[in-house]
Write a structure and sequence with these properties.
Largest sheet: 5 strands, mixed
Radius of gyration: 15 Å
Number of helices: 2
CATH architecture: 3-Layer(bba) Sandwich
Number of strands: 9
Strand content: over 45%
CATH superfamily: Pyruvoyl-Dependent Histidine Decarboxylase, subunit B
CATH class: Alpha Beta
Number of domains: 1
Strand order of the largest sheet: 2-5-9-1-4
Oligomer: single chain
Distance between the termini: 19 Å
Order of helices and strands: EHEEEEEEHEE
Shape: flat
Length: 153
Amino acid sequence: MRIAIVSGKDEGPTKLNAFDNALSNAGIGDVNLIKVSSMLAGNAKIQKLPKLKAGAMVNCVLSEVTSDNPGDEITAVVAVAIGKELGCVVETTGINKNSDEIVEKAKKMVKYMMDKREVEINELIVEYSTTTVKNIASTISSVVYLNDDIVEE
């Protein structure tokens, strides 16, 4: 299994436009995202996000938060734990919360998921995006499940 871990943030004239712009900032704005739950195959390989085919149907775990309240600090986090047998992903967000605390919460949740399954963690990765809202902003973090059908050659 191959995955890419990405994040993005941006502003826009509406909440939808801010979200779309954040997706584009992360490199996943021109595809159709299909939210999936939080499981990975064992020894999943992380790679840089390749160019995806426009309009492709792309599985992902997506963390996103959008606000139209100027001054809000918004944060979107994904935490990935990979073991030999399997891996787990968690997503969480926060508004006006310390980003370090949100990251720690994500780590704690993903470690719990692996412990519950009695799988040793070989690799733990956290990706997050945070910004202070000027007008309307969105932040996203995502684990993108890659396969040859969605990658542009």
